[in-house]
Specification:
It comes from Amycolatopsis pretoriensis. Keywords: Hydrolase, Magnesium, Metal-binding. Catalyzes the dephosphorylation of histidinol-phosphate to histidinol, the direct precursor of histidine. This protein has 272 residues and is α+β, with helices and mostly antiparallel strands. The protein folds into two domains: 8-148, Fructose-1,6-Bisphosphatase, Chain A, domain 1; 157-271, D-Maltodextrin-Binding Protein, domain 2, CATH 3.40.190. Helix content is 37%, strand content 24%. The chain contains seven helices and 14 strands. It has helices spanning 8-34, 53-69, 98-103, 170-184, 196-205, 218-230, 254-266, and strands spanning 41-43, 50-52, 75-77, 88-96, 109-116, 119-126, 133-137, 142-144, 147-148, 161-164, 189-191, 210-214, 234-236, 248-252. A seven-stranded mixed sheet has the order 3-4-5-6-7-8-9. It has a five-stranded mixed sheet with strand order 11-10-12-14-13, with helices on both faces. Helix 5 (196-205) runs parallel beside helix 6. The longest helix has 27 residues, at 8-34. It is globular, with a radius of gyration of 18 Å. The mean pLDDT is 96.
Length: 272
């Protein structure tokens, strides 16, 4: 049921508009880099955890657009921080997949979601390189460029394609590699694409049958998890599945969600 006074369709439209505007800024910068222009690059938690001037510019644009379109509503962003409010809070990843962006790999996105009491009610994930627009509003389905999405239906685990990701910490990546090695023998294959929001969207589209990753932040999953859920995926957010680890994010087609969840636990997901 919608919260009183909240129009999820309107919030989705705002998310799409703002994410599309930011994606255009990011696309122009990406094409400029391909043409030889440089971009300032810094690091955060590790030397491999990069942030660019374009990340900051994208988030500033998103904040400015939201201030104009939804004045007074707080924003929680990857680069600028922030805290949730009592009503709608906007959760922003100005470039999800910054390493891909820097390397020229066209699998990165701008993610914008509206949350109420920590629950995503509308969101958009826009790909600067391709222009694809993923979107969803609570209870209204998920869409890619206006086409309704539905998850896949693999018949058994051996035919299940699983997406995942790895941490910036070398120590944790080592644990994750052991987990992935154990899982590989029980599923079709594993994909590691480097942008959590798009991996969750890929589950929504049936491009992946499932996705699991540890250590994501709210801005990584806020829009993508809603899109996956609205396409029919079983979605578990950090803190809701201790057998997978306290910081695990999980999305899977219903046909394999429960057996895969057990296999992930057996493979040591909680120890990652």
């Amino acid at each position: 049921m919608s919260d009183v006074g909240v129009d999820e369709s309107l919030l989705k439209s705002v998310a799409v508009q703002v994410a599309t505007d930011a994606a255009e800024l990011v696309r122009e910068a990406w094409e400029g880099m391909a043409a030889g222009r440089s971009v300032a690059v810094g690091t955060k938690s590790a030397d491999t955890d990069v942030v660019t001037a374009v990340d900051h510019e994208s988030e500033r644009l998103v904040r400015d657009r939201l201030a104009a379109l939804r004045p007074g509503e707080p924003v929680l962003g990857e680069e600028g921080g922030g805290t949730a409010g009592d009503g709608v809070t906007w959760v922003v990843d100005p470039i999800d997949g910054t390493v891909n962006f820097l390397y020229g790999l066209p699998w990165f996105a701008v993610s914008v979601a509206a949350q109420i009491a920590g629950e995503s009610v509308a969101g958009a994930v826009v790909e600067p390189a391709s222009g694809r627009v993923w979107s969803a509003a609570r209870g209204q389905g998920a869409f890619l460029d206006g086409r309704r999405l539905a998850v896949s239906a693999p018949s058994r685990l051996e035919l299940t394609l699983v997406g995942t990701g790895f941490a910036y910490s070398a120590e944790r990546r080592t644990r994750q590699s052991r987990f992935a090695a154990s899982l590989l023998g029980q599923v079709r294959d594993i994909r590691r694409n480097g942008a959590a929001s798009l991996d969750l969207c890929a589950v929504a589209a049936g491009w992946l049958d499932a996705y699991v990753e540890h250590g994501l932040h709210r801005w990584d999953w806020a829009a993508g998890a809603l899109i996956a859920a609205e396409a029919g995926a079983e979605v578990l957010l950090p803190g809701s599945a201790p057998e997978l680890g306290t910081d695990a994010t999980y999305a899977a087609a219903p046909s394999v969600a429960e057996p895969l969840r057990k296999v992930l636990a057996d493979c040591g997901a909680a120890e990652v």
